[in-house]
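**Entry details**
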Amino acid sequence: MLNSSSSIRLRALPSIALLAGDGASATHVTAMGGAARFADAEQLIASGFAADVIVLCAKEAADARRWLQLLRRNPRLGLRPMLLSVSHGPLVDSLSDGLATSADDALRYADDLRARWQALDRPEPIDGDDRLLSFLYLHPEYVLEPVADSHDERDYCYPLADLYSLEHEDGFALISRLQQRGMLKVLRLVERLHVCPDCASAHLLFNELCPQCASIDIVEQHFLHCYACGHVAPQEEYLGRGGLICPKCSARLRHIGVDYDRALETMACKTCSGRFTEAEVKARCARCRKQYPTDALMERRFHSFRLSSAGESAARSGSVGDLFALIDEVSHAHPAYFGQTLNWLLALNRRHPEVHFSLLMLKFSNLQALAADLSRGHLARMLDTVAQRLRALLRGSDLFMRDDDGLCWLLLPQTAAAGLAVLRERIEALSAASTQNDGRRIEMAIATVTSALLDQSAGDASAVMGRLRGAFD
């Protein structure tokens, strides 16, 4: 939001900006009497007019969508109420605040938002995370719904989140990050699709193939089985002038179940002449053209979201929320389970020295300092990048746990000193990978120990973990 020098609080008499081109409905324009009229979004932005509410009277959906996108991205007007004179479909309507058929409707809507606008008396949100949180706070009834879009390779999109996301990401990444931080709550499952494992596209083509040679040139046929000689052949080969006659033994087939029956094979391949009951089904991605069995496809779920209580608090106060929730998504083990597993490995190693393990403690040492200098969205993206790369380094058998002190623990079964050294080097490289253009980066402190360095007096899991904690004291 804007600071005190350029307040965005609503005045006693809200001002209306009406966007209406040459083809706009005269009825709708007249209903907005008293509004300042502009031909398009570019003209409104260039004018510097401080509208408290904006009404878009566009003849075409494409114009309405373009105007809304320009206005929502504008730092000065992006969070102002924007109402449509008519509905233009979900892809457009989801970028607006709703419909208004008269000036009274627009003024009433702006007045209803007065208190929530005044609660956001803090610097303007500068990034996508913050702007989306602020928008949802100003619109408590707004639901982030996935919208079907045949032009989108995912088949569904979140138009508002796509609009506020950065150039190198999409709305799914933005929503996922806010959900992991506890800023959004799931309302319901809207759709579930299967997507390509390689490029995640939902545009899939399903083909029936010959299970013997994988040819697509297959046809459905009816096969008959002659009881007299056991011959099985397509029905066409049995057809004669007098009815059904076996082409092998010339027996006349009059009664099904007595002279003949239908064989199980109902399909034939024109390439290899094979016969089969069921074809093999495979999915080919229309985007990358790769082909997979149907059981290899990935599942993608599309939910609707609303701002959570934690998200409302973060939007109002500007706090960063629980950034560590992004790290917990790596594979968070319960502390009791983590301690029990470590005790078990300690006991196993003492009895069987050939069974070894390593323990690594990780501390993000400058998060508070970064939170004081960077926007919450910027810091969340940095930490999310680190979390994703950390997840890629771990094996399925490794255990990750974060304790109440903000320390992250990695328990690595069957990992000796050499393997631990390689992992430590790769984790330390994550800090360099998080470096921003201004030189800021997430600093990490690491302490490690291997089972080979622990003797019989090392104690239990608590003692070993306490020993590593001492490295940071």
User: Anything to note?
Assistant: The first helix runs from residue 26 to 31.
